[in-house]
Amino acid sequence: MSKSDCPPQRQTKAPNGISRCLSCNICCGGSSPSPAEKRRMANYRPSSWDYNMLQSLGTGDESRLGLKHNFQDDIISALNRILPHQYLSCENDTVESLHFVALKFRLLRQHGFDVSTGLFENFMDENGKFKAKISEDVRGMLSLYEASQLGLEGEIVLDEAKASLAPHLTHALKLPAVQPLAERITHALEVPFHRRMRRLEQRWTIETYGAGSDSNQTLLQLAKLDFNSVQSVHQEELRYLTRWWIGLRLSDKLSFARDRLMESFFWSVGMVPEPEYGRSRKALTKVASFVTVLDDVFDVYGTLDELELFTLAVERCVNICYISF
């Protein structure tokens, strides 16, 4: 911005040839950069997403189903009923029920309930180690391995179980009888369940669950309806954000910066996928898109003098915002 950009009657002269716009209280450079000044360019690849296509995404009939996504209250209620009786069946548990016990432990831990590793005492020897014969139950080992990922600091039993079960499960992949579980085992060994992106995990589970001969078709159909219903909400949000981004024209005016609206939205879905948190996803996407552009302004394009003035302007705007509150 040059001095001519400020109204003459509102300019004041500051030291070092810098003029001040009193109307906005922002420092403006006394002279424009030389046209011959070299700029750094990162040569970022253009956005791979067609914004016209994103805006044309259809909601489909699934948006009319009115499927409620949030069953959290029912889940917590069921786990509250399980919690007081978590140790009652220990005396009767056998190796075949290791899957059930490990699943119960994981679900309780996953939802923040205080559950002890004593739940596994029937599967441990007198030295506090898991019995060797649990290696005969591949499904139980898989469930126990997934449960061990939620171990707390100092729970040596779960740490040792996680370390010892990984090679056992890897070896089990070579057995013909284990092939129905092979994909699940490989998936569990790659990344723990609670560290995966929930939407991608739901899609993967739908595909693998449907391939099983013992799958509950009613539950599978509900999962598909739920996935499509939530996806339609996300698509509508993406259309809104695309219109907002195109209207700003930042990708046209600042061609040196990365155009990453879609990636920013995908990141927000990874954080809060539930349909009722649409406002959070929109806000996160906008912030991430702006931060990406600002990062390129500072790291790639701006000169030191420009960045100092720009930082000063931003700081003053922030202060004004605080004063207004």
Automatic annotation (TrEMBL):
The keyword Magnesium appears for this protein: yes
A UniProt-annotated Pfam family: Terpene_synth_C
PANTHER family noted in UniProt: OS04G0344100 PROTEIN-RELATED
The protein, known as: Terpene synthase 18
InterPro entries reported for this sequence: Terpene_synth_N (IPR001906), Terpene_synthase-like (IPR050148), Terpene_synthase_metal-bd (IPR005630)
Residue ranges of domain Terpene synthase N-terminal in the record: 64-189
GO biological process annotation, one example: terpenoid biosynthetic process
Gene Ontology MF: a single term: magnesium ion binding
Domain Terpene synthase metal-binding positions: 248-317
Transmembrane segments: none
Keywords: Magnesium
